[in-house]
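Take a look at the protein record below and tell me what you see:
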Amino acid sequence: MIGDMNQLVNTFHMDVEYCNNHENNEKELLLNIKTMIKKYTQLYFTTIDDIQKKDIVDRLSRYYNMLYYIKGKKDSHKMFLLDRDIDNLPFVYVVQQKPELFEINNSLLKSIDVSHGLSLEQAQELLKFTVNNTRNNLNMGNKNRGSNQDVYDNDSLGGACGFSQFSSLYPLQKLGLTVTINNISSIGGCRHAYGTVIIPINIDGNIVRKRYLIDCTYRQFFTIPHNVVARYLNGTPEIGFFIAQDKVETEFAKKLLMDGFVEANEENLVKYLKPFYAMTLDINELTKLDKKFAMIDIISMLDNQQENFDYTEEEFLDWGMNLEINNYEKIK
């Protein structure tokens, strides 16, 4: 997960040296860096070639590194505060994957009887429904606030995790399923609400309890400005920084970004949680990441370190949100 770290650090040192060599013209350099950030951000959205997009992401990362370094020399506490013209640019992500709008099989959804267990197909349909419904509620929330951000387009979903957690898990809980109400802070990281649901799967008359992880706002941790080496100058990068360096982690992230849920087996839980744990470590501690993370009992944490929902059914209904599994007409 940290395979290209040395290369990234070496490139950062080269860019720092370039900034230091031009410190007599720092004002002009800073203006040029901001101009290039705007240019390449705009270029990203007009480019369709994936290789070119990857090159643009790399270039933007280097420009943000230089921007933070120059700002940090003046005031380390304000180095990550961006000017409004930069802060309002469209989001570019280090791992790019838009959410999926699922086609829902309503007849399959209607046939669900939790007391007798679900088929794998019913379980998948139920999860797709709750993700669709949550994304629909998130878009309705955007509209209510006068925002034109679209979950299915380029909305980063920053700060909406508690809303998403309630919207996705509460209807499943009402249906009679066991859910866990979790927060990343349980492993010492940032506060980020997510959860799991345990679905009884009927396989040839035998009930197998299958756990699924749901996180519909995972995307907020992949924006370029928050995922560059320079974040180590006064903190740490977010999870996208670590995931983008690993092909296996990237494929997992794309799946979760697209679907909003994954099976919560041990392998997937490690892929989900370890990058968050990496955010708690100094750059010099990253070589100990695997050893430190292995000490965490993941399942015990999920089941025993739970929190309360941030919202209530009454609040959601007052806002016109849907929380019913069988309310098909409100779902896209």
